[in-house]
Amino acid sequence: MTLFCLCVSMIALAQQKTITGTVIDTRHEPVIGASVLEKGTSNGTITNLDGEYSLKVSPGATLVFSYIGYKTQEIRVSANTNINVTLAEDAEQLQEVVVVGYGVQKKSSLTGSVASVSSKEIVKQLSSNVASTLQGRTPGVDILQQAGVAGADVNIIIRGAASFGATEPLYVIDGAFSNSGLSSLNPNDIESIEVLKDGAAAAIYGSRAANGVVLITTKRGKSGKPVIEIDGSYAFQTPTNIPDFLNATQWREFANNVADNSGIAHAPENDNPTYPDTNTDWAKEWIQYAPMWNLNASISGGGENSTFSTSLGYLDQTGMTIYSDYKRYNFRVNSSYKKGIFSLSENIAITHRDKTPTTAFNISLPTLPIYDSEGRFFSGGGDYYINPEDGKAQNKIAPLHYTDRYNKVTDIIGAITAQLDLWDGLKYKFSFSGNYSNSHNYTHTPEYYTKWNEDGTPDQDYGSPKNSISESRGEEFTYTIDNLLTYNKTFSGHSIDALVGTSWMREYNRSMSLATINDLGGTKITGFSSVDGKISASDSNAALLSFFARLNYDYKDRYLLSASIRRDESSKFYKDNRVGYFPSVSAGWNAHQESWFANPVVSKLKIRASYGELGANFLSPYNFDAIAYGPIPYTLGGVRYTSGRAAYLKSRELKWETAKTTDIGLELGFLNNDLTVQVDYFVKKNVDLLAQIDLNLSSGQIFEINSSREKPYVNSASVKNTGWEFLVNYRKQLTKDFSIDATLNLSTLKNEVLSLGDNVQPITSGAMSSSFSDSPSITKPGEAIGSFYGYKINGFDADGNFIFADTDNSGSVDANDKVILGNPIPDFSYGLNLTMSYKDFDLTMFFQGVQGNEIFNQKKYTYYFDYSNNCVTDVLNAWTKNNQNTNIPIMKTQNTDGGNSLPSEFYIEDGSYFRCKNLQLGYNFPKSILNKISFNKLRVYAGVQNLFTITNYSGYDPEVSSNALFSRGIDSASYPNARTFTFGFNASF
């Protein structure tokens, strides 16, 4: 029997024939990557760079030829073994589609403001973080990066900050809401990114979309022979800018001058140094060789009814500063199955991030050696400071050497979707999606010392005299259940796309932290003492129930209309205020589709307008009720008691924040759309913002208030953002061998606080120094959020001190004389992306910049007035009797505690810059070589990120970032940006 089956199989195999041919389009260009499939089987392949294919099939088989944007063809195999196919363009499929909320839509029928970034643009940005690839590419999207820190998160703000809570947009990855933003994504996995910027585009997400929406679609497999892709790169990073610091000789001379100006004696180490030959370049000691490895592999394919795609990614980034690094591991599976009226798709991604956090870039005194004569870490006494009473000169590298610390995060995100095609154009879709995140932070510092007494015993004041451990863990889990009913129908020129749905979301958060000292010297917590340690924990959950509907209508692709409504009910509010309604309406007119429109130059003219309302509930789940926690110790009658305190006052009147947005857009195309122009004007007004008011103690209630977090919330504030956005693209195949694709975008933004509400004081950022309480920014009506606030300077007095202006003419200078000095919002931001290809070479250049913003250079306090660190060489040009033509005041120890160092226009600098963000040159190996090595594609490239920056800013980098809304543009960073050189390859077979 076995022999019989074997014979039958051999006969069938012998009857198979090899079919070869070429697939081209109507312009006789090869269709690369077209699917060629034996119908009814999983036997298939794809065409190569010349559109050629070869496939063994059974006698009488039917071949199915397909490719996105072209009509599918089926050809029955006859005696002829060479089948050439010309695929005709599918007018409907060739309509560029973009991903929108809960679906896709033809770009020509869009009436909202949606920006798209393709995978081609993403992978050429030479960045390990997906969010940074959007910088300068999309008008109205602001990217805030934390300099060159390894594994640093990137913040996105769409059309200006407008809430006093979170400013990040909603992130949706393949239909699943992401709690981790884009930091967990592998750039190689992404097919496209869509940014929903206005109310009409984002209103379908209702209360979660006040800050805009970012939709990420990952790559999926295609029917045909499996395709294996491997991408790898090696990079190394160098600082873009390091300030010039004083050397040891300059420091001793400078320190003695400061002592003379301050009326104190010279420090012993500055007159008779213990280590006279020491000249430590601490900046050089902190910087290390910083390589970065990136490797990605994927396999994708499918049969007639199913597709799959699986990918693995690994990133290993060494930080530019010592004892810092970042690793990321990615795994993703996407698959789909369709049989008759039923289809099923799933996607799941697992990411693990392991980071050794970067510490401050501390520049100690150049007169301090790193090691003593016995090779031990060295700390100097107070004698190294200008004023020996100012403290102890600690070794700042020793803690990094001895401390074990890490941040580990594991993210799991995925969705499963089932769909039934019920009737002509009517479909039902069920989706379950979820996102789980687990974080673990750990720090262990053993007992160590960096200074020894004359008798050889360690000095307890230098180093860490006790073993200490701190550890925290957190968990977040969110799941969403969606039920959707869609209807899509075209008849007699009318096109209807309708959607109704429900959504149920639950979110859970749990965290715990523990810290203790003197724990037996071990690396694990084995005991706990309430005297030497502390513990905290939290547990919360919330729910959101939603109903929504949307209707898109167009007539002959000329007249466009869209409307949506969403009803959200959130458990974060008291029962009487839990429901919010978020409507939108938009319309458009494709004038170029009119029969009377005939213009040899203008090939496209589209006008659109929209209005939408979005919501926000940036609250903890229990803000509407009072919460007590403790313990708080107190003594009464000689007896010690403990009690709780109110974290929040009960506020059951809290309701939704609402963002009301209006957008007017114009889209133009010229020369058969080789040149396109898009213009948008928007107004975004956020009302009922949640702000915190001062307590009314006349109520008779007494509360312990330790931070603004404990003040009650009220819906009282409002903010307005207005702006223009311009996008120009020119794309042309100029000759057979040369093509160009150039995109220029520019955007303006005006941000204004309209009101804070009754009893709400202006909001200030934190104090710029522990030595005095003045804040460098303020948020108040009539000004931008986080405007810089300080004293005007009217020159110097006879002793070289700043003369602060008496702006209120009161006869004396005090805090009432502080004025607005500028704000961090640019007059305009811009980006220019230029891609050219010539034969097998391609060149990508990307330039980006901002104009007209101010930066509050808070690092000037550290480098001019805080003499526990080294100073920049500019201090040598400070005011003296013989040098009065300067803008730097006299150097004296009193500067540390205020006076000349108070917030003033001395810290304000122009933040404008122009930067070559990315430059990449690639080479695609020709088919003659690929055929010999059995590759479909092989590309090698070299590139550099942050090649150069043109700016007048004196700090590390003008691209100043802060995670705190009210501190934006305040440069307190101690870390340079990175210039990254990359060498890599892309291969598929």
UniProtKB/TrEMBL annotation:
InterPro entries: Beta-barrel_TonB (IPR000531), Beta-barrel_TonB_sf (IPR036942), CarboxyPept-like_regulatory (IPR008969), Plug_dom (IPR012910), Plug_dom_sf (IPR037066), TonB-dep_OMP_SusC/RagA (IPR023996), TonB-dep_OMP_SusC/RagA_CS (IPR023997), TonB-dep_rcpt-like (IPR039426). It is found in: Cell outer membrane. Coiled coil: none annotated. This is TonB-dependent Receptor Plug domain-containing protein. Its main location: membrane. Pfam families: CarbopepD_reg_2, Plug, TonB_dep_Rec_b-barrel. Residues 107-213 form the TonB-dependent receptor plug domain. It comes from Bacteroides eggerthii 1_2_48FAA. Residues 388-947 form the TonB-dependent receptor-like beta-barrel domain. NCBIfam families: OMP_RagA_SusC, SusC_RagA_signa. Belongs to the TonB-dependent receptor family. The lineage of its organism: Bacteria, Pseudomonadati, Bacteroidota, Bacteroidia, Bacteroidales. It comes from the Bacteria. PROSITE patterns: TONB_DEPENDENT_REC_3 (PS52016). Keywords: Cell outer membrane, Membrane, Receptor, TonB box, Transmembrane, Transmembrane beta strand, Transport. One of its GO terms (cellular component) is cell outer membrane. It is a multi-pass membrane protein.
